Amino acid sequence: MGHAVTIKDIAKILNVSVSTVSRALRDTYDVNQETKERILSLAAELNYKPNFNATGLAQGSTHNIGVVLPFITNYYFSTVITGIQEVAYNDNYNIILFITNDSSERELSIIQNLSLSRLDGLLVSVSSNSDSCNHFQEIINEGTPIVFFDRVASNIDTSKVMQDDYNGAFEAVEHLIENGYSKIAHIAGPKGLDFTEKRLNGYLDALKKHGLAAREEWIIYSGFSQEYGEADTYQLLQCEQRPDAIFAVNDRKAIGAIVALKNNGIVIGKEIGVIGFTDDPICTIISPSITTIAEPAFEIGKTCCELLLKHINKKHFHPQEVILPGTLIARESTMRN
Amino acid sequence: MGHAVTIKDIAKILNVSVSTVSRALRDTYDVNQETKERILSLAAELNYKPNFNATGLAQGSTHNIGVVLPFITNYYFSTVITGIQEVAYNDNYNIILFITNDSSERELSIIQNLSLSRLDGLLVSVSSNSDSCNHFQEIINEGTPIVFFDRVASNIDTSKVMQDDYNGAFEAVEHLIENGYSKIAHIAGPKGLDFTEKRLNGYLDALKKHGLAAREEWIIYSGFSQEYGEADTYQLLQCEQRPDAIFAVNDRKAIGAIVALKNNGIVIGKEIGVIGFTDDPICTIISPSITTIAEPAFEIGKTCCELLLKHINKKHFHPQEVILPGTLIARESTMRN
DNA sequence: TATATCTATGCAATCGTTACCGAAACTGTA
DNA sequence: TACAGTTTCGGTAACGATTGCATAGATATA
Predict the structure, then answer these.
(1) Are B272 and B315 in contact (CB under 8 A)?
(2) End-to-end CA gap in chain A
(3) How far is residue A324's CA from residue A163's CA, in Å, rounded to a whole number?
């Protein structure tokens, strides 16, 4: 009830000025040791909590960071958020969530309506169909730092955190080759997206290294969902040369592939191998279990948040690009027998 | 660059006072139609955005609502959040996320360190092992409204939103009975949790209605994860009287049951039927697909957020309890052949 | 003793906005 | 013309904290 306790209350009770209380609380100016202790103990006793609107107003910093991403209802993003939350919580920052539904219009609207006075910085994973990134550049120009993760805007000069898409894909394809598959198809993400390209290149280079052909009909670009994975796989099964393995750009599409192959009575692993990317928990639940490249989602969340805090706290922190390695997890879907 | 445009800037340019600008912007006090238009158009032109720290300070309201929940890395909670976000976004509220990791200590620490000056209200789903809810009551006493969803603190007098656990469970068990199962076991949630009880009661009453026995050895309480579901199922298989159907408190445990049954070479559906609760997308992916009661997660998110906004905006909004029905989705795991 | 240096504190402006109080300027009425 | 009533607007004190500047008192230096 009543009103929350403020530094004025403390000042009045202790018969000192508000500035002294403020300094004692922030432990930053010279305040007599004894009065500082009196202030701190009274503050604790009264359960004093700073008013963030006031501090924010006075020193131009809220302790809020915004997180902008396509959606949270999948394993990868929800785990990234959990990682972000972990370091934010420890550093007393709050995270404010903005969900774009993977729509560039919504993304634009969110960014343009953003009250920057409310945020110290932004963590973003861009929506898959956003063509321009000017709106992000403007935010940065206005002085609010941004760190990108996963789906990055490559032409913007700021810190970025992502998994090692190229090497993950390379490793995935090599794993298939080592297990005796040679006609390897790739069901990719949407064209133009940064990590679609990287995984594609890893795929192509691994084939090249092992002297295998990359047939155009074996590479299909489409969306990220299970349905697309299914459709792509049906299309692959109609190829002139039928592939004997499928590298899917993510686990969702790998699941789609599994479903499609099962529907066609194909024995997965033996006849056609399947490998995904992410390590969604579903991989271990589905039968056959799916071999995949595990992405360090939690680590990515932690890292990008740490970087953002550095951007916030150091005036001109030099942008960094952090690439975290994935790890291959072999399961049934790439077992020859 | 420079500084964000404020109402002072607008006032100076238009040669009016800040109070006039403020009134024009909020469209609430008497201000001449023509000057109002001049102000609004200039504000739009300069891309004026209100400083929420300042408005928050001045009128004691931020436009932030806190969401406190166990975790977000599952289908149910991430969908609820998406629903919350949907209405919050439309009403220009931001959501600030607090993740308890389902630990009551963390929950307590979060709540106690909460700077209420930063939040207009709170949406919470309590952690499964929190025994006391005094900390929530204190928040409410201090004037910050709370709406509970899913895992509610039943002894606190405020609005609550949940799925219809009792009837969902009842319907699930009746579905099993209709499909010819009669020895129906229940792998439940942890004892003491509100919805564990409700689903248990639905189970018991459905059995009673159809004159079926409820054997004590067929009811097992444990955690919510797949692992618990597996362990519980192994235990069920050792019962004196082996059940011919399993009603799991949620899909995760149902999945565990599926895994355990498969490991024992039992034909699911034919020999033992399995039904879950939630409608996690995994239900359709796993083989056999899992019959379940679909929870209206998105609706729950929307509803609790709407209720919270009412609590925030109407001084003494009368608390409401909203119970949203689930819907049975029949799949392979309860098909006799 | 007079002066310089420090330490510890208070005063007051400031951040951007709201809202109360009053007062011009105008309208209409007697 | 005088007066009351409307509109429309400006001045200003909040909101809770930070911070540059000033200063009293204590201490050290010459």
Answers:
(1) no
(2) 69
(3) 5
Low-confidence ranges of chain B (pLDDT < 50): 1
Nearest nt (C1') from B58 Cα? D15
Residues in CB range of B219: below 8 A, 6 or more apart: B185, B186, B188, B200
Whole-model pTM: value is 0.90
Q: Rounded CA gap, A247 and A334, in Å?
A: 10
Tokens 């299914």 sit at which residue?
A230
Distances (CA, A) of B173 to A206, B31, B181, B325: 53, 64, 9, 16
Three-state DSSP state, B160 = strand
A20/D27 CA-to-C1' distance in Å: 22
Closest chain A residue to B52 measured between Cα atoms?
A118
A60 alpha carbon, distance to own chain's centre: 27
pLDDT category at A333 given cuts 50, 70, 90 is very high
Positive/negative CA dihedral, A118, A123, A128, A133: positive
| Span CA (A34) to C1' (C2), Å | 32
Q: Which ranges constitute the DSSP H helices of B210-263?
A: 226-237, 251-263
* Shortest Cα distance, chain A CAs vs residue B304, angstroms: 17
Which nucleotide has its C1' atom closest to residue B17's CA? D10
**Predicted pLDDT at A2:** 56
